[in-house]
Amino acid sequence: MKDHWISNYDWFALKNQLLSNLREFGVDLIGVADARPFTELRERLNQWHDNGWASGFEERDVDLRTEPNRALESGSARSIISIAIAYPSKLLNPPKSELGAYRGVIARSAWGEDYHTVLRDRLQRIRTWLISRVPEAEIVSMVDTGVLSDRAVAERAGIGFSGKNCSIISPSMGSWLYLGELVTNLPFEADIPMLDQCGTCTKCIDACPTGALVGPGQLNAQTCISLITQLKGVLDDDQKKHIGNRLYGCDTCQVVCPYNKGMDWHLHQELEPDPALAKPLLKPLISMSQRVFRDQFGRTAAAWRGNAPIRRNAIIGLGHFRDVTAVPELTRAMNEDARVEIREAAVWALGRIGTDDARDALVNRLASNLEGTEVVMKALQQALATLK
Q1: Which helix (H) or strand (E) holds 83?
Q2: What is the residue range of 60's domain?
Q3: Same domain as 225, residue 167
């Protein structure tokens, strides 16, 4: 019988050792889920896709997302080890926006070193520890880009409960948590999931800037600002309106959560933010090269989409601030940048600023007949019509 080795181990004792080694592994919360199929999640995912609410970034195969057995070559998953690492929610001595030096904001999940890298390191520590004790162990680690739902696993493993804002909320640590998991063939006893503790609170739903939280635990990712900031290409006026000065991601639904009140974790050096990068100056971002972008943001989770979305979002932020000092840089971007989304955003921002020199720049660009892209031409005409 291929699993005869299972009887060779005291699984209760081994699990207790695992749970007691949190600090050795460098994690803050750990729990164990059974490896049954996620039947309820399957129903939610099918509804999510049918409603057109998916982001497009996640694994499309619902079977892979809901059947842990498929993660192992043997097809014999027995338990899933879920981990959570807490990250900072507040900057020490944050820089301030001011005229001529306005700043954008990066979501807290991208403040420090890319959490994928950090979590993979922690998961590898646990995997190595387990294999040193159980050589027969079959273990596959997953972080965000894995096929399973990190939140569904964490909920089942008792890490926290699933909040109305679609985050896993730990009563003791809030929801500023990175999640990852190890699918194993080890027969650990599962922990007890937590019951929902949101009660009648709807602060996250009420605060969502675009109404993307369409109900408790229901997110229309297509209208979520976090997704919008990561989209490539030209954004429509409604999307621009809601972005504000966000450069990457959105934290609103977590900031307003009562469970996050007073929660600010500085437990892992790799996750400590550089305040100047968490709230970067907007004007230098307009013409930021890919090389400079990699140097400044390459180690963060904000780097995966390249520099174009952040440059575009910086221009939109300057438009929201109506930063008159940015007109020369915006004019240069409108006239010279090779990317359509950058030129279009610069036109929109100049129209918002609306000073004489901004208007002159728009008039000159339109009169030059050098802009051959329809979407930018339309933006020029709309901006000038609004200024009139």
Answers
A1: strand 79-86
A2: 4-88+112-184
A3: no
Tally of structural domains, the chain: 2
Q: Which residue has the tokens 């019509």?
A: 385
Backbone angles phi, psi at 152, to 5 degrees: -65, -40
Do 227 and 144 fall within a single domain? no
pTM of the model: 0.94
Q: Using the 3D structure, point to which of 184, 202, 218 is the last residue of a domain.
A: 184
Catalytic residues: 144
> What phi and psi values does residue 164 have, to the nearest 5 degrees?
-65, -20
Which of the 8 DSSP states describes residue 193?
A: P
Rg (CA), the chain: 24
pLDDT tens-digit profile, the chain (388 residues): 478 899 999 999 999 999 999 999 999 999 999 999 999 988 888 888 888 888 878 777 888 889 999 999 999 999 999 999 999 999 999 999 998 899 999 999 999 999 999 999 999 999 999 999 999 999 999 998 778 999 999 999 999 999 999 999 999 999 999 999 999 999 999 999 999 999 999 999 999 999 999 999 999 999 999 999 999 999 999 999 999 999 999 999 999 999 999 999 999 999 999 999 999 999 999 999 999 999 999 999 999 999 999 999 999 999 999 999 999 999 999 999 999 999 999 999 999 999 999 999 999 999 999 999 999 999 999 999 999 8
Both 225 and 168 in one domain: the answer is: no
